[in-house]
């Protein structure tokens, strides 16, 4: 059975570009075929800001628990990543641990790279392994055609390297990380 790659759409903004970016990446991962990709759209999950738990948190926790590796699809907002993504990361604890994570970012001229550098600090505290290669889309509104495809060769190459690294880490970890 193929390991499960959880792709999280981090943006919940009205009129967001995030789903276009995420769908493109899922097509790359599916074409590669070594992972089974599953998408979680944070716009569909209700997470309380006070971290008091509830059905949305239970749903997210089960979903995270079932995945072997993750890709966070994130925009850059004011040189950081969106609050929706931080809330999701903070709402789950043990189930993130010991799992690899990669990043697909997008934005203006910097392509979301500042959001990713911040995320790397956060996922380290969650005891995740962030992989080296990432995908970034500068000037995201011009990066995709009407079919949601891109001719950005660096992004296509980066996606493949990231998938290779996520697979290596998810196999290398071997055993689930002991909770606690
Ligand atoms: C509140 C806000 C702040 C933004 N700040 C940045 C920024 O600091 N750097 C950047 O490259 N793009 C910035 N942008 C542009 C976004 O990256 C771009 O609009 C992107 O499409 C947002 O992702 P979304 O459409 O999935 O919400 C900002 C957009 C918003 C809404």
From TrEMBL:
Pfam families: FMN_red
Domain NADPH-dependent FMN reductase-like: 5-138
Transmembrane segments: none
InterPro entries assigned to the protein according to its UniProt record, in alphabetical order: Flavoprotein-like_sf (IPR029039), FMN_Rdtase-like_dom (IPR005025), NAD(P)H-dep_reductase (IPR050712)
Stated name of the protein: NAD(P)H-dependent FMN reductase
Organism: Rhodococcoides corynebacterioides
Highest classification ranks of the organism: Bacteria, Bacillati, Actinomycetota, Actinomycetes, Mycobacteriales
């Amino acid at each position: 059975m193929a390991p499960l790659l959880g792709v999280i759409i981090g943006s919940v903004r009205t009129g967001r570009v995030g789903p276009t970016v995420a769908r493109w990446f899922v097509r790359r991962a599916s074409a590669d075929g070594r992972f089974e990709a599953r998408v979680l759209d944070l716009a569909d999950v209700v997470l309380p800001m006070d971290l008091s738990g509830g059905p949305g948190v239970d749903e997210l926790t089960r979903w995270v628990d079932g995945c072997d590796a993750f890709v966070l699809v994130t925009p850059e907002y004011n040189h950081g990543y969106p609050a929706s993504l931080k809330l999701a990361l903070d709402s789950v604890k043990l189930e993130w641990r010991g799992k690899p994570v990669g990043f697909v970012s997008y934005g203006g001229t910097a392509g979301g790279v500042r959001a990713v550098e911040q995320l790397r600090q956060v996922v380290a505290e969650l005891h995740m392994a962030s992989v080296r290669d990432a995908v970034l889309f500068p000037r995201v509104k011009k990066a995709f055609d009407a079919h949601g495809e891109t001719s950005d060769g660096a992004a296509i190459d980066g996606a493949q390297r990231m998938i290779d690294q996520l697979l290596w880490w998810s196999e290398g970890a071997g055993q689930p990380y002991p909770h606690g």
